[in-house]
Amino acid sequence: MRIRSLGVIDDAVVELSPGFTAVTGETGAGKTMVVTSLGLLLGGRADPALVRIGAKAAVVEGRVVMRPDAPAAVRAEEAGAELDDGALLISRTVSAEGRSRAHVGGRSVPVGLLGELADDLVAVHGQTDQQGLLRPARQRQALDRYAGDAVAVPLEKYASAYRRLRAVAVELEEITTRARERAQEADLLRFGLDEIAAVEPVAGEDAELAAEAERLGHAEALASAAQAAHAALAGNPEDPEAIDANMLVAGAHRALESVRSHDPALGALAERIGELGILLADVAGELAGYADDLDADPLRLAAVEERRAALTQLTRKYGTEGTVDAVLEWAEQGAARLLELDGDDERITELTAERDGLRSELSVLAQTLTDARVEAATRFASAVTAELASLAMPHARVTIDIRQTDDPEGVDVDGRPVAYGPSGADEVELLLAPHPGAQPRPIAKGASGGELSRVMLAVEVVFAGTDPVPTYLFDEVDAGVGGKAAVEIGRRLAKLARTAQVVVVTHLPQVAAFADRQLLVEKTNDGSVTRSGVTVLEGEDRIRELSRMLAGHEDSVSARAHAEELLAAARADG
Where is the RecF/RecN/SMC N-terminal domain positioned along the sequence (predicted)? Predict the structure, then answer.
Protein backbone atom coordinates (compact mmCIF):
# COMPACT_ATOMS: atom_id res chain seq x y z
CA MET A 1 0.00 0.00 0.00
CA ARG A 2 1.40 3.43 -0.98
CA ILE A 3 0.32 6.51 0.97
CA ARG A 4 0.94 10.09 -0.18
CA SER A 5 0.08 13.41 1.48
CA LEU A 6 -2.14 11.88 4.15
CA GLY A 7 -1.88 13.43 7.63
CA VAL A 8 1.72 13.30 8.80
CA ILE A 9 2.64 10.92 5.97
CA ASP A 10 4.35 12.61 3.02
CA ASP A 11 5.10 9.54 0.91
CA ALA A 12 5.40 6.02 2.33
CA VAL A 13 5.04 2.42 1.21
CA VAL A 14 3.60 -0.22 3.56
CA GLU A 15 4.37 -3.85 2.68
CA LEU A 16 2.24 -6.27 4.68
CA SER A 17 3.20 -9.86 5.47
CA PRO A 18 0.96 -12.74 4.35
CA GLY A 19 0.73 -13.81 8.00
CA PHE A 20 0.95 -11.53 11.03
CA THR A 21 2.20 -7.94 10.53
CA ALA A 22 2.71 -5.66 13.53
CA VAL A 23 2.86 -1.89 12.98
CA THR A 24 4.70 -0.06 15.76
CA GLY A 25 6.19 3.37 16.41
CA GLU A 26 6.17 6.17 18.92
CA THR A 27 2.94 7.94 19.81
CA GLY A 28 2.06 10.43 17.08
CA ALA A 29 4.41 8.84 14.55
CA GLY A 30 1.57 8.06 12.16
CA LYS A 31 0.64 4.46 12.95
CA THR A 32 -3.05 5.31 12.89
CA MET A 33 -2.62 6.80 9.42
CA VAL A 34 -1.93 3.28 8.20
CA VAL A 35 -5.36 2.26 9.48
CA THR A 36 -6.92 5.42 8.05
CA SER A 37 -5.34 4.72 4.65
CA LEU A 38 -6.76 1.22 4.57
CA GLY A 39 -10.12 2.65 5.61
CA LEU A 40 -10.08 4.99 2.60
CA LEU A 41 -9.29 2.08 0.28
CA LEU A 42 -12.30 0.30 1.78
CA GLY A 43 -14.69 3.15 1.00
CA GLY A 44 -14.41 5.10 4.26
CA ARG A 45 -15.56 8.72 4.54
CA ALA A 46 -13.34 11.19 2.71
CA ASP A 47 -12.38 13.91 5.18
CA PRO A 48 -10.50 16.83 3.56
CA ALA A 49 -8.85 17.45 6.94
CA LEU A 50 -6.83 14.28 6.30
CA VAL A 51 -5.00 15.93 3.38
CA ARG A 52 -1.49 16.99 4.37
CA ILE A 53 -1.14 20.77 4.76
CA GLY A 54 0.16 22.27 1.52
CA ALA A 55 -0.86 19.30 -0.64
CA LYS A 56 -3.62 19.39 -3.24
CA ALA A 57 -4.81 15.86 -2.55
CA ALA A 58 -4.13 12.71 -0.54
CA VAL A 59 -3.68 9.49 -2.50
CA VAL A 60 -3.79 5.91 -1.25
CA GLU A 61 -3.01 3.04 -3.60
CA GLY A 62 -3.23 -0.63 -2.72
CA ARG A 63 -2.47 -3.96 -4.38
CA VAL A 64 -4.68 -6.80 -3.15
CA VAL A 65 -3.76 -10.35 -4.16
CA MET A 66 -6.78 -12.61 -4.59
CA ARG A 67 -8.10 -15.60 -6.51
CA PRO A 68 -9.95 -14.81 -9.78
CA ASP A 69 -13.06 -16.56 -8.39
CA ALA A 70 -13.04 -14.66 -5.07
CA PRO A 71 -16.30 -12.73 -4.45
CA ALA A 72 -14.47 -9.38 -4.46
CA ALA A 73 -12.76 -10.22 -7.77
CA VAL A 74 -16.07 -11.23 -9.36
CA ARG A 75 -17.79 -8.05 -8.14
CA ALA A 76 -14.89 -5.89 -9.38
CA GLU A 77 -15.01 -7.52 -12.82
CA GLU A 78 -18.76 -6.89 -12.98
CA ALA A 79 -17.91 -3.20 -12.54
CA GLY A 80 -15.46 -3.35 -15.46
CA ALA A 81 -12.23 -3.77 -13.48
CA GLU A 82 -9.44 -6.15 -14.45
CA LEU A 83 -7.05 -8.18 -12.32
CA ASP A 84 -3.35 -7.58 -12.91
CA ASP A 85 -1.47 -10.88 -12.60
CA GLY A 86 -3.76 -12.13 -9.82
CA ALA A 87 -3.94 -8.77 -8.03
CA LEU A 88 -6.56 -6.05 -7.87
CA LEU A 89 -5.23 -2.50 -7.93
CA ILE A 90 -7.29 -0.04 -5.87
CA SER A 91 -6.74 3.70 -5.46
CA ARG A 92 -8.54 6.49 -3.62
CA THR A 93 -7.91 10.21 -4.05
CA VAL A 94 -9.21 12.86 -1.64
CA SER A 95 -8.76 16.50 -2.65
CA ALA A 96 -8.20 19.35 -0.20
CA GLU A 97 -11.66 20.63 -1.27
CA GLY A 98 -13.28 17.37 -0.19
CA ARG A 99 -13.83 15.74 -3.60
CA SER A 100 -13.19 12.02 -3.73
CA ARG A 101 -12.39 9.63 -6.58
CA ALA A 102 -11.94 5.87 -6.66
CA HIS A 103 -10.32 3.54 -9.21
CA VAL A 104 -10.45 -0.26 -9.21
CA GLY A 105 -8.54 -2.38 -11.70
CA GLY A 106 -7.84 0.61 -13.95
CA ARG A 107 -11.48 1.71 -14.06
CA SER A 108 -13.03 4.75 -12.41
CA VAL A 109 -15.81 3.52 -10.10
CA PRO A 110 -18.25 4.94 -7.52
CA VAL A 111 -16.80 5.07 -4.01
CA GLY A 112 -19.67 2.86 -2.88
CA LEU A 113 -18.12 -0.04 -4.79
CA LEU A 114 -15.11 0.07 -2.47
CA GLY A 115 -17.42 -0.52 0.48
CA GLU A 116 -18.97 -3.52 -1.30
CA LEU A 117 -15.53 -5.00 -1.94
CA ALA A 118 -14.49 -4.33 1.67
CA ASP A 119 -17.16 -6.70 3.01
CA ASP A 120 -15.34 -9.59 1.32
CA LEU A 121 -11.76 -8.37 1.89
CA VAL A 122 -11.07 -6.95 5.34
CA ALA A 123 -12.56 -7.04 8.84
CA VAL A 124 -11.48 -3.90 10.70
CA HIS A 125 -11.43 -3.86 14.50
CA GLY A 126 -10.62 -0.82 16.57
CA GLN A 127 -12.18 0.97 19.50
CA THR A 128 -14.91 2.42 17.26
CA ASP A 129 -15.38 -0.73 15.20
CA GLN A 130 -15.96 -2.76 18.36
CA GLN A 131 -18.97 -0.61 19.07
CA GLY A 132 -20.66 -2.06 15.98
CA LEU A 133 -20.41 -5.61 17.30
CA LEU A 134 -21.95 -4.43 20.57
CA ARG A 135 -25.29 -4.00 18.81
CA PRO A 136 -27.63 -7.01 19.13
CA ALA A 137 -28.38 -7.00 15.39
CA ARG A 138 -24.67 -7.37 14.57
CA GLN A 139 -24.35 -10.08 17.21
CA ARG A 140 -27.19 -12.02 15.61
CA GLN A 141 -25.49 -11.76 12.21
CA ALA A 142 -22.23 -12.99 13.73
CA LEU A 143 -23.95 -15.97 15.38
CA ASP A 144 -25.75 -16.84 12.13
CA ARG A 145 -22.45 -16.80 10.28
CA TYR A 146 -20.94 -19.10 12.90
CA ALA A 147 -23.92 -21.50 12.71
CA GLY A 148 -23.44 -21.98 8.95
CA ASP A 149 -26.03 -23.91 6.90
CA ALA A 150 -28.03 -24.87 9.99
CA VAL A 151 -29.26 -21.25 10.02
CA ALA A 152 -28.53 -20.15 6.44
CA VAL A 153 -30.86 -22.69 4.77
CA PRO A 154 -34.03 -22.04 6.84
CA LEU A 155 -33.18 -18.31 6.94
CA GLU A 156 -33.33 -18.14 3.13
CA LYS A 157 -36.77 -19.80 3.15
CA TYR A 158 -37.90 -17.55 6.00
CA ALA A 159 -36.73 -14.39 4.21
CA SER A 160 -38.68 -15.34 1.07
CA ALA A 161 -41.87 -16.01 3.06
CA TYR A 162 -41.35 -12.83 5.07
CA ARG A 163 -41.08 -10.67 1.93
CA ARG A 164 -44.28 -12.20 0.58
CA LEU A 165 -46.06 -11.63 3.90
CA ARG A 166 -45.09 -7.94 3.83
CA ALA A 167 -46.37 -7.60 0.26
CA VAL A 168 -49.67 -9.33 1.15
CA ALA A 169 -50.07 -7.16 4.25
CA VAL A 170 -49.50 -3.96 2.28
CA GLU A 171 -52.03 -4.94 -0.40
CA LEU A 172 -54.58 -6.04 2.19
CA GLU A 173 -54.21 -2.81 4.13
CA GLU A 174 -54.57 -0.76 0.97
CA ILE A 175 -57.78 -2.54 -0.04
CA THR A 176 -59.40 -2.31 3.39
CA THR A 177 -58.33 1.23 4.32
CA ARG A 178 -59.26 2.69 0.94
CA ALA A 179 -62.63 0.95 0.70
CA ARG A 180 -64.57 4.25 0.47
CA GLU A 181 -62.28 5.74 -2.16
CA ARG A 182 -62.42 2.54 -4.20
CA ALA A 183 -66.25 2.46 -3.93
CA GLN A 184 -66.41 6.06 -5.21
CA GLU A 185 -64.06 5.16 -8.05
CA ALA A 186 -66.27 2.20 -8.95
CA ASP A 187 -69.41 4.42 -9.02
CA LEU A 188 -67.73 6.91 -11.35
CA LEU A 189 -66.62 4.11 -13.64
CA ARG A 190 -70.12 2.61 -13.76
CA PHE A 191 -71.62 6.03 -14.58
CA GLY A 192 -69.14 6.57 -17.39
CA LEU A 193 -69.55 3.10 -18.84
CA ASP A 194 -73.36 3.44 -18.74
CA GLU A 195 -73.14 6.80 -20.48
CA ILE A 196 -70.95 5.37 -23.22
CA ALA A 197 -73.14 2.26 -23.58
CA ALA A 198 -76.23 4.48 -24.06
CA VAL A 199 -74.63 6.21 -27.05
CA GLU A 200 -73.10 2.99 -28.48
CA PRO A 201 -70.23 4.66 -30.36
CA VAL A 202 -68.51 2.79 -33.19
CA ALA A 203 -64.81 3.01 -33.97
CA GLY A 204 -64.13 5.66 -36.64
CA GLU A 205 -67.73 6.82 -36.59
CA ASP A 206 -66.90 10.42 -35.76
CA ALA A 207 -64.75 10.85 -38.88
CA GLU A 208 -67.42 9.32 -41.15
CA LEU A 209 -70.16 11.54 -39.70
CA ALA A 210 -68.02 14.63 -40.11
CA ALA A 211 -67.58 13.86 -43.84
CA GLU A 212 -71.30 13.19 -44.29
CA ALA A 213 -72.27 16.43 -42.51
CA GLU A 214 -69.91 18.38 -44.78
CA ARG A 215 -71.51 16.79 -47.86
CA LEU A 216 -75.12 17.32 -46.71
CA GLY A 217 -74.43 20.89 -45.68
CA HIS A 218 -73.27 21.80 -49.22
CA ALA A 219 -75.58 19.52 -51.23
CA GLU A 220 -76.96 22.26 -53.53
CA ALA A 221 -73.54 23.66 -54.40
CA LEU A 222 -72.21 20.14 -55.04
CA ALA A 223 -75.18 19.26 -57.31
CA SER A 224 -74.85 22.51 -59.29
CA ALA A 225 -71.11 21.99 -59.79
CA ALA A 226 -71.62 18.36 -60.90
CA GLN A 227 -74.32 19.38 -63.42
CA ALA A 228 -72.17 22.17 -64.84
CA ALA A 229 -69.21 19.83 -65.20
CA HIS A 230 -71.44 17.22 -66.89
CA ALA A 231 -72.75 19.80 -69.38
CA ALA A 232 -69.20 20.87 -70.21
CA LEU A 233 -68.20 17.29 -70.92
CA ALA A 234 -71.34 15.78 -72.48
CA GLY A 235 -73.39 18.79 -73.57
CA ASN A 236 -76.62 20.47 -72.49
CA PRO A 237 -79.84 18.85 -73.82
CA GLU A 238 -81.55 22.23 -73.69
CA ASP A 239 -78.93 23.79 -76.04
CA PRO A 240 -78.28 21.40 -78.97
CA GLU A 241 -75.99 23.94 -80.69
CA ALA A 242 -73.58 24.19 -77.73
CA ILE A 243 -70.10 22.74 -78.14
CA ASP A 244 -68.90 20.25 -75.45
CA ALA A 245 -65.69 18.40 -74.69
CA ASN A 246 -66.93 15.07 -76.08
CA MET A 247 -67.78 16.73 -79.40
CA LEU A 248 -64.36 18.37 -79.72
CA VAL A 249 -62.48 15.16 -78.82
CA ALA A 250 -64.59 13.17 -81.28
CA GLY A 251 -63.76 15.69 -84.03
CA ALA A 252 -60.06 15.42 -83.27
CA HIS A 253 -60.26 11.61 -83.40
CA ARG A 254 -62.06 11.67 -86.80
CA ALA A 255 -59.45 14.03 -88.26
CA LEU A 256 -56.58 11.70 -87.39
CA GLU A 257 -58.42 8.49 -88.15
CA SER A 258 -58.57 9.34 -91.87
CA VAL A 259 -54.79 9.59 -92.23
CA ARG A 260 -53.40 7.26 -89.52
CA SER A 261 -52.43 4.62 -92.03
CA HIS A 262 -49.77 6.93 -93.50
CA ASP A 263 -47.76 7.29 -90.27
CA PRO A 264 -47.69 4.92 -87.28
CA ALA A 265 -46.81 7.79 -84.92
CA LEU A 266 -49.96 9.67 -85.85
CA GLY A 267 -51.89 6.43 -85.48
CA ALA A 268 -50.69 6.06 -81.94
CA LEU A 269 -51.88 9.60 -81.17
CA ALA A 270 -55.26 8.78 -82.69
CA GLU A 271 -55.60 5.81 -80.35
CA ARG A 272 -54.74 7.93 -77.32
CA ILE A 273 -57.39 10.52 -78.35
CA GLY A 274 -59.85 7.65 -78.65
CA GLU A 275 -59.04 6.55 -75.13
CA LEU A 276 -59.49 10.15 -73.98
CA GLY A 277 -62.96 10.16 -75.42
CA ILE A 278 -63.86 6.97 -73.57
CA LEU A 279 -62.54 8.46 -70.28
CA LEU A 280 -64.56 11.67 -70.79
CA ALA A 281 -67.70 9.63 -71.39
CA ASP A 282 -67.11 7.64 -68.17
CA VAL A 283 -66.54 10.78 -66.09
CA ALA A 284 -69.59 12.44 -67.56
CA GLY A 285 -71.69 9.37 -66.66
CA GLU A 286 -70.41 9.36 -63.09
CA LEU A 287 -71.15 13.11 -62.76
CA ALA A 288 -74.70 12.50 -63.89
CA GLY A 289 -75.10 9.65 -61.36
CA TYR A 290 -73.53 11.77 -58.56
CA ALA A 291 -75.98 14.60 -59.14
CA ASP A 292 -78.94 12.19 -59.20
CA ASP A 293 -77.87 10.34 -56.05
CA LEU A 294 -76.94 13.41 -53.99
CA ASP A 295 -79.16 13.49 -50.90
CA ALA A 296 -80.11 16.98 -49.83
CA ASP A 297 -82.51 15.78 -47.13
CA PRO A 298 -82.45 18.33 -44.25
CA LEU A 299 -83.84 15.70 -41.86
CA ARG A 300 -80.84 13.45 -42.47
CA LEU A 301 -78.51 16.42 -41.89
CA ALA A 302 -80.22 17.14 -38.56
CA ALA A 303 -79.88 13.49 -37.49
CA VAL A 304 -76.17 13.50 -38.36
CA GLU A 305 -75.54 16.68 -36.38
CA GLU A 306 -77.43 15.31 -33.40
CA ARG A 307 -75.35 12.13 -33.46
CA ARG A 308 -72.14 14.15 -33.73
CA ALA A 309 -73.15 16.23 -30.71
CA ALA A 310 -73.68 13.09 -28.64
CA LEU A 311 -70.28 11.75 -29.64
CA THR A 312 -68.60 15.10 -28.94
CA GLN A 313 -70.00 15.05 -25.42
CA LEU A 314 -68.38 11.63 -24.87
CA THR A 315 -65.02 12.60 -26.35
CA ARG A 316 -64.83 15.68 -24.15
CA LYS A 317 -65.34 13.59 -21.00
CA TYR A 318 -63.63 10.31 -21.81
CA GLY A 319 -61.56 10.72 -24.95
CA THR A 320 -58.17 12.12 -24.02
CA GLU A 321 -57.32 12.54 -27.71
CA GLY A 322 -60.76 13.89 -28.62
CA THR A 323 -61.73 10.85 -30.72
CA VAL A 324 -64.30 8.08 -30.46
CA ASP A 325 -61.46 5.53 -30.55
CA ALA A 326 -60.03 7.11 -27.36
CA VAL A 327 -63.48 6.86 -25.73
CA LEU A 328 -63.67 3.16 -26.58
CA GLU A 329 -60.18 2.63 -25.15
CA TRP A 330 -61.23 4.37 -21.90
CA ALA A 331 -64.28 2.13 -21.73
CA GLU A 332 -62.16 -0.99 -22.14
CA GLN A 333 -59.76 0.06 -19.41
CA GLY A 334 -62.58 1.23 -17.16
CA ALA A 335 -64.37 -2.09 -17.46
CA ALA A 336 -61.20 -3.96 -16.49
CA ARG A 337 -60.64 -1.65 -13.52
CA LEU A 338 -64.26 -1.99 -12.42
CA LEU A 339 -63.94 -5.76 -12.52
CA GLU A 340 -60.89 -5.44 -10.28
CA LEU A 341 -62.67 -3.11 -7.85
CA ASP A 342 -65.79 -5.27 -7.74
CA GLY A 343 -63.58 -8.23 -6.85
CA ASP A 344 -62.25 -6.57 -3.68
CA ASP A 345 -64.32 -8.66 -1.31
CA GLU A 346 -63.13 -11.86 -2.92
CA ARG A 347 -59.56 -10.55 -3.00
CA ILE A 348 -59.72 -9.61 0.70
CA THR A 349 -60.77 -13.17 1.51
CA GLU A 350 -57.90 -14.59 -0.59
CA LEU A 351 -55.31 -12.26 0.90
CA THR A 352 -56.46 -12.89 4.45
CA ALA A 353 -56.16 -16.64 3.92
CA GLU A 354 -52.70 -16.23 2.37
CA ARG A 355 -51.58 -13.95 5.21
CA ASP A 356 -52.66 -16.46 7.84
CA GLY A 357 -50.94 -19.27 5.96
CA LEU A 358 -47.72 -17.28 5.68
CA ARG A 359 -47.82 -16.46 9.39
CA SER A 360 -48.09 -20.15 10.18
CA GLU A 361 -45.23 -20.93 7.82
CA LEU A 362 -43.12 -18.18 9.34
CA SER A 363 -43.87 -19.47 12.81
CA VAL A 364 -42.47 -22.91 11.95
CA LEU A 365 -39.43 -21.47 10.16
CA ALA A 366 -38.80 -18.98 12.98
CA GLN A 367 -38.81 -21.82 15.50
CA THR A 368 -36.36 -23.74 13.31
CA LEU A 369 -34.09 -20.67 13.27
CA THR A 370 -34.37 -20.27 17.03
CA ASP A 371 -33.47 -23.92 17.65
CA ALA A 372 -30.45 -23.68 15.33
CA ARG A 373 -29.30 -20.44 16.95
CA VAL A 374 -29.64 -21.85 20.47
CA GLU A 375 -27.52 -24.87 19.51
CA ALA A 376 -24.88 -22.69 17.80
CA ALA A 377 -24.93 -20.21 20.69
CA THR A 378 -24.01 -22.95 23.18
CA ARG A 379 -21.03 -24.03 21.09
CA PHE A 380 -20.00 -20.45 20.34
CA ALA A 381 -20.19 -19.29 23.98
CA SER A 382 -18.14 -22.28 25.15
CA ALA A 383 -15.47 -21.62 22.52
CA VAL A 384 -15.21 -17.91 23.38
CA THR A 385 -15.09 -18.70 27.11
CA ALA A 386 -12.22 -21.12 26.48
CA GLU A 387 -10.35 -18.44 24.50
CA LEU A 388 -10.83 -15.91 27.31
CA ALA A 389 -9.26 -18.33 29.74
CA SER A 390 -6.13 -18.19 27.59
CA LEU A 391 -6.30 -14.39 27.52
CA ALA A 392 -5.80 -13.99 31.28
CA MET A 393 -9.54 -14.03 31.99
CA PRO A 394 -9.74 -17.57 33.45
CA HIS A 395 -12.91 -16.98 35.42
CA ALA A 396 -14.83 -15.10 32.72
CA ARG A 397 -17.89 -16.77 31.28
CA VAL A 398 -19.63 -15.83 28.05
CA THR A 399 -23.24 -16.70 27.33
CA ILE A 400 -25.63 -15.73 24.57
CA ASP A 401 -29.14 -14.61 25.38
CA ILE A 402 -31.68 -15.44 22.68
CA ARG A 403 -35.12 -14.03 23.29
CA GLN A 404 -38.26 -13.01 21.44
CA THR A 405 -40.17 -9.75 21.78
CA ASP A 406 -43.95 -9.66 22.05
CA ASP A 407 -45.73 -7.97 19.18
CA PRO A 408 -49.17 -8.49 17.62
CA GLU A 409 -47.56 -9.01 14.20
CA GLY A 410 -47.93 -12.78 14.35
CA VAL A 411 -48.56 -15.85 16.50
CA ASP A 412 -46.11 -18.70 16.99
CA VAL A 413 -46.90 -22.40 17.09
CA ASP A 414 -47.84 -22.18 20.77
CA GLY A 415 -50.28 -19.34 20.18
CA ARG A 416 -48.04 -16.62 21.63
CA PRO A 417 -47.74 -13.26 19.91
CA VAL A 418 -44.34 -12.85 18.29
CA ALA A 419 -42.54 -10.16 16.33
CA TYR A 420 -41.52 -11.27 12.85
CA GLY A 421 -38.50 -9.44 11.50
CA PRO A 422 -36.50 -9.92 8.29
CA SER A 423 -34.19 -12.40 10.08
CA GLY A 424 -36.64 -14.21 12.30
CA ALA A 425 -38.17 -13.59 15.70
CA ASP A 426 -34.95 -13.66 17.73
CA GLU A 427 -32.96 -10.99 19.47
CA VAL A 428 -29.39 -12.11 20.18
CA GLU A 429 -27.18 -10.54 22.83
CA LEU A 430 -23.70 -11.50 23.99
CA LEU A 431 -23.40 -11.53 27.79
CA LEU A 432 -20.25 -11.57 29.92
CA ALA A 433 -19.73 -12.55 33.56
CA PRO A 434 -16.09 -11.41 34.14
CA HIS A 435 -15.67 -13.28 37.43
CA PRO A 436 -17.46 -15.90 39.54
CA GLY A 437 -20.58 -14.64 41.22
CA ALA A 438 -21.06 -11.81 38.73
CA GLN A 439 -24.35 -11.66 36.89
CA PRO A 440 -23.99 -12.00 33.11
CA ARG A 441 -24.41 -8.58 31.55
CA PRO A 442 -24.26 -7.27 27.97
CA ILE A 443 -20.59 -7.00 27.02
CA ALA A 444 -21.02 -3.24 26.49
CA LYS A 445 -21.87 -2.92 30.20
CA GLY A 446 -20.10 -5.90 31.73
CA ALA A 447 -16.59 -5.44 30.32
CA SER A 448 -13.89 -2.84 30.85
CA GLY A 449 -11.92 -1.47 27.90
CA GLY A 450 -9.19 -4.10 28.14
CA GLU A 451 -11.69 -6.89 28.76
CA LEU A 452 -13.76 -5.78 25.82
CA SER A 453 -10.69 -5.89 23.56
CA ARG A 454 -9.95 -9.43 24.68
CA VAL A 455 -13.58 -10.50 24.21
CA MET A 456 -13.53 -9.13 20.66
CA LEU A 457 -10.27 -10.92 19.93
CA ALA A 458 -11.64 -14.17 21.36
CA VAL A 459 -14.73 -13.78 19.16
CA GLU A 460 -12.57 -13.31 16.05
CA VAL A 461 -10.39 -16.31 16.87
CA VAL A 462 -13.52 -18.44 17.20
CA PHE A 463 -14.89 -17.02 13.98
CA ALA A 464 -11.63 -17.63 12.10
CA GLY A 465 -12.73 -21.05 10.85
CA THR A 466 -16.03 -19.80 9.41
CA ASP A 467 -15.28 -16.22 8.41
CA PRO A 468 -14.64 -15.82 4.66
CA VAL A 469 -12.80 -12.50 5.12
CA PRO A 470 -9.08 -13.07 4.31
CA THR A 471 -7.66 -10.05 6.22
CA TYR A 472 -8.12 -8.73 9.76
CA LEU A 473 -6.99 -5.30 10.89
CA PHE A 474 -6.74 -4.60 14.64
CA ASP A 475 -6.13 -0.98 15.62
CA GLU A 476 -4.74 -1.04 19.18
CA VAL A 477 -7.31 -3.66 20.12
CA ASP A 478 -4.88 -4.53 22.95
CA ALA A 479 -5.35 -1.13 24.62
CA GLY A 480 -5.54 -1.38 28.41
CA VAL A 481 -3.89 -4.82 28.46
CA GLY A 482 -0.43 -5.75 29.71
CA GLY A 483 1.72 -8.49 31.17
CA LYS A 484 0.67 -12.08 30.70
CA ALA A 485 -2.59 -11.08 29.03
CA ALA A 486 -0.61 -9.19 26.37
CA VAL A 487 1.48 -12.29 25.66
CA GLU A 488 -1.68 -14.35 25.25
CA ILE A 489 -3.16 -11.74 22.91
CA GLY A 490 -0.03 -11.96 20.78
CA ARG A 491 -0.29 -15.74 20.79
CA ARG A 492 -3.94 -15.64 19.75
CA LEU A 493 -3.27 -13.16 16.98
CA ALA A 494 -0.52 -15.46 15.72
CA LYS A 495 -3.00 -18.34 15.80
CA LEU A 496 -5.50 -16.30 13.81
CA ALA A 497 -2.74 -15.49 11.29
CA ARG A 498 -2.41 -19.19 10.42
CA THR A 499 -5.67 -19.01 8.47
CA ALA A 500 -5.81 -15.32 7.53
CA GLN A 501 -3.72 -12.21 7.07
CA VAL A 502 -3.57 -10.22 10.32
CA VAL A 503 -2.42 -6.60 10.62
CA VAL A 504 -2.11 -5.14 14.13
CA VAL A 505 -1.30 -1.56 15.13
CA THR A 506 0.09 -2.02 18.64
CA HIS A 507 2.16 -0.41 21.38
CA LEU A 508 2.75 -3.69 23.23
CA PRO A 509 6.08 -5.46 22.64
CA GLN A 510 4.54 -8.71 23.89
CA VAL A 511 2.14 -8.58 20.92
CA ALA A 512 4.67 -7.33 18.35
CA ALA A 513 7.09 -10.14 19.21
CA PHE A 514 4.67 -12.73 17.78
CA ALA A 515 4.45 -10.98 14.39
CA ASP A 516 5.90 -12.56 11.26
CA ARG A 517 6.86 -9.05 10.13
CA GLN A 518 7.23 -5.86 12.15
CA LEU A 519 6.94 -2.45 10.52
CA LEU A 520 8.26 0.69 12.18
CA VAL A 521 6.63 4.04 11.46
CA GLU A 522 8.85 6.99 12.32
CA LYS A 523 8.95 10.66 11.46
CA THR A 524 11.80 12.65 9.99
CA ASN A 525 13.12 15.78 11.65
CA ASP A 526 10.57 17.95 9.84
CA GLY A 527 7.68 15.96 11.36
CA SER A 528 6.65 14.01 8.27
CA VAL A 529 6.72 10.34 7.38
CA THR A 530 8.55 9.76 4.09
CA ARG A 531 9.02 6.69 1.93
CA SER A 532 11.89 5.59 4.14
CA GLY A 533 9.83 6.28 7.25
CA VAL A 534 8.06 2.89 7.14
CA THR A 535 10.66 0.19 7.42
CA VAL A 536 10.69 -3.57 7.89
CA LEU A 537 12.51 -4.43 11.10
CA GLU A 538 14.78 -7.44 11.16
CA GLY A 539 17.52 -8.72 13.45
CA GLU A 540 19.15 -6.03 15.56
CA ASP A 541 16.72 -3.34 14.41
CA ARG A 542 13.74 -5.32 15.66
CA ILE A 543 15.39 -5.95 19.04
CA ARG A 544 16.10 -2.22 19.39
CA GLU A 545 12.45 -1.33 18.63
CA LEU A 546 11.11 -3.92 21.08
CA SER A 547 13.54 -2.54 23.68
CA ARG A 548 12.21 0.95 23.08
CA MET A 549 8.65 -0.32 23.49
CA LEU A 550 9.61 -2.07 26.74
CA ALA A 551 11.75 0.58 28.44
CA GLY A 552 11.28 3.80 26.51
CA HIS A 553 14.79 3.77 24.96
CA GLU A 554 16.71 1.37 22.74
CA ASP A 555 19.96 0.98 24.73
CA SER A 556 18.60 -0.49 27.96
CA VAL A 557 20.52 -3.70 28.62
CA SER A 558 17.69 -5.27 30.60
CA ALA A 559 15.15 -4.22 27.95
CA ARG A 560 17.29 -5.81 25.22
CA ALA A 561 17.49 -9.02 27.17
CA HIS A 562 13.71 -8.98 27.67
CA ALA A 563 13.16 -8.25 23.96
CA GLU A 564 15.35 -11.19 22.94
CA GLU A 565 13.47 -13.35 25.42
CA LEU A 566 10.11 -12.29 23.95
CA LEU A 567 11.23 -13.07 20.41
CA ALA A 568 12.63 -16.44 21.43
CA ALA A 569 9.45 -17.35 23.29
CA ALA A 570 7.29 -16.29 20.32
CA ARG A 571 9.37 -18.38 17.89
CA ALA A 572 9.22 -21.37 20.21
CA ASP A 573 5.47 -21.00 20.55
CA GLY A 574 5.06 -20.84 16.76
Answer: 12-527
Amino acid at 543: I
Listed in sequence order, the DSSP H helices in 294-412 are: 298-318, 324-342, 344-390
- Taking phi over 0 as left and psi of -120 to 50 as alpha, with beta for the rest, 397 belongs to beta
Task: Report CA Rg, the chain.
Answer: 45
Tens digit of each residue's pLDDT (9 = 90 or more) over 445-492: 767 666 777 787 788 778 765 666 788 888 766 666 667 778 888 888
Q: Which residues contact 556 (CB under 8 A, 6 or more apart)?
A: 547, 550
Least confident of 87-91, 126-130, 335-339, 377-381: 126-130
Q: Phi, psi (5° rounding) for residue 16? A: -95, 145
Host domain of residue 21: 1-126+476-574
- Is 26 in a helix, a strand, or coil? coil
**Tally of domains in the chain:** 2
DSSP 30-55: SHHHHHHHHHHHTT----GGGBPTT-
489 found inside a domain: yes
Whether the predicted model's global pTM rises above the 0.70 cut: no
Tell me, what amino acid is at 295? D
